[in-house]
Amino acid sequence: GGRVKTEHGVLPVPAPATADLLRQAPTYSTGIERELVTPTGAALVAALVTQFGPQPRMTVERIGYGAGSAELAEQPNVLRLLLGEAAEAGRGVQEPTVTVLEANLDDMSPLVGGYFMEQALAAGALDVFFTPAQMKKNRPGLVLTVICSPDRAELLSELIFEQTTTIGLRQYEARRRVLEREFISVETPYGPVRMKLAKLDGRVLNAAPEYDDCQRLAREKSVPLKQVLADAQFYFRQQQKDRS
Fold first, then answer.
1. Residue 104 bridge partners (DSSP)
2. Of 34, 191, 222, 236, which has the fewest CB atoms closer than 10 Å, so is most exposed?
3. If DSSP codes are grouped into helix, strand and coil, which group holds residue 100?
4. Which residues of the chain have pLDDT under 70?
5. Domains defined for the chain, CATH in brackets
6. For the whole prediction, is pTM greater than 0.70?
């Protein structure tokens, strides 16, 4: 907030050039009536930063400080920069930052919802789901939730507006905790099946057969899907015993 004197006269803060450079960046006001971000600083952010969010878990290697000439009564006029490497959460758990998109729907056909889910997953969404909810005017409706990486948020936001009936959505960042994953192939009487392993400290906590593999084999061999799923688990355990 406030104003700043420039060669072009007195301008509002942020200055037009600064505001233009920060169009794609999340901003907020501190309440200090001074220019805290200059066009040069905004240009550096626009050129160097690829995503925004809370400070990640990291190992700090270097710390830099930059001090401004203006004296601020509210806080030190100092900018601090931390440089380091992102650290794993430990014990085989990763913590990537994801973007969550949400929209309330009370006037959309379920047929459209199913089609949208296919389109969103094909566009790179990590997860898509609908939650039943009671809307305004006592209408039963759905809350659409799309989870994606930050670099897919803009594309998926446009897809939500294009493919659903919502006229607005909520967007926020969240930290996702993910176990280490590994794929292995298991031989079954029907053919090979990929198994997705979830690990913690190198220990396998969960092993799940890939649905697409099991579905394909069930159709090709004319056997129940549940039998292929069960046999995949059985032969996976046998394979693990043989290796131990």
1. 143
2. 222
3. strand
4. 1, 87-93
5. 3-86 (no CATH), 97-175 (3.30.70.1380), 179-243 (3.10.20.300)
6. no
